[in-house]
Design goal:
heterodimer; A: 224 residues; alpha+beta; Cyclin A, domain 1; SH3 type barrels; 6 strands; 31% helix; 16% strand; globular; B: 222 residues; mainly alpha; Nitrile Hydratase, Chain A; two-stranded parallel ribbon; 10% strand; nitrile hydratase activity (chain B); lyase (chain B); CN_Hdrtase_a/SCN_Hdrlase_g (chain B)
Amino acid sequence: MNGGQDLGGMHGFGPVAPEADEPRFHAEWERRVFALAMAMGFTGAWNLDASRAARESLNPGEYMLASYYEIWFRALEKQVLAHGLVEGAELSAGAALAPPAPVARVLHAEQVAPLFARGFPSDREQPGPARFAVGDEVSAKTINPTGHTRLPRYVRGRTGTVERVHGAFVFPDTNADLAGEAPQWLYTVRFSGLELWGEDADPGLTVSVGAFESYLEPARRRAA
Amino acid sequence: MAHDPGPHEPHHHPHADHDHGHDHPHHGSALSPMELRVRALESILVEKGYVEPAAMDALIETYETRIGPRNGARVVARAWVDPAYRERLLADGTAAIRELGIGGRGGEHMVVVANTPEEHNLVVCTLCSCYPWPVLGLPPVWYKSPPYRSRAVIDPRGVLEEFGVALPATTRIRVWDSTAELRFMVLPMRPEGTEDLDEAALADLVTRDAMIGTGLPQGGRA
């Protein structure tokens, strides 16, 4: 969706300002939100793409002003409500009032180290031959889906070059809706700064994005 | 606290100016609205049996204290001393990093890109906060914040200057926007004059920012 998360190329946010001490967490509640999001993600009620979609669905103004873990928390509240795991009255009361809904899994402490050291790969069996090859000129489609997508606005309609072909991966756009993994070929597509930003772009700049096959079409025109 | 605005007071938290107010400890026993809301949700989720408190503690401990940029520094140092490893690392980052016992969540599919005198790499995630967790740990706030995410793709040279990295005008910049489940790590150039250092000493020169592309190794030149 064209939400507050799609920040590439925006102006006005000011300088990048690293913190002096860069704490991983700034308050106890940030630790708790991080762990809650990870643990609830493991229940199988939703997936990582769905969590990203929930975060992106915040009002853009709120998204841009909220702190990172505040975004995570607001999305998590939305998700537990939407999936019937928690009722609104329970959030108001701060206590469980209704019996739990069934979940597929619960993360146990002794599982954390082995599971997270292995990770949760998202590569999948290839659905068929790849449509594009390294060196192909491709255009990112002009699309404006209201649901989740990983094609940022700043490359839509632009022409670039396929520089890597990675195999098939879970397609976030459907997976976020819990509508299936629908694996697709994933490419790295490289765009010139001139093509993306025009004459004032940094000379020699290129920007590469990960692009799923359905985001792409054969080049409509030559890249700048 | 200034960084704990309720949902109706976002103007108290101008994120863009990074005035997070972390230097101001909370006085008295009253909890912030955010602390209260998170506690309420946590107690409901635990009471309902969806979340095991000990698993939360294990997650926090793992990502607050165990996994961080020293992992990535080991990878870089190995690549500096072992040309065959460097080749494997650039060809299949995931497998080569796994050789050192490093991998997992947020680094299932790793791509490592090498800086050269002609080309400097910079990693960003404009859409969220994708970052190579197993090699770098959890990302710093600036990496997840609008100033970096908005500008890294359109004004990378300006961003680098703010980090104190002044590239020669002839050095091309390659930006990698982490829009899919591929996580990127930069392999910086080995600083000159380090021929006598062993692998462990070389790892000590590798800063986290050098592996994002917003910095250089200690003693390194752009």
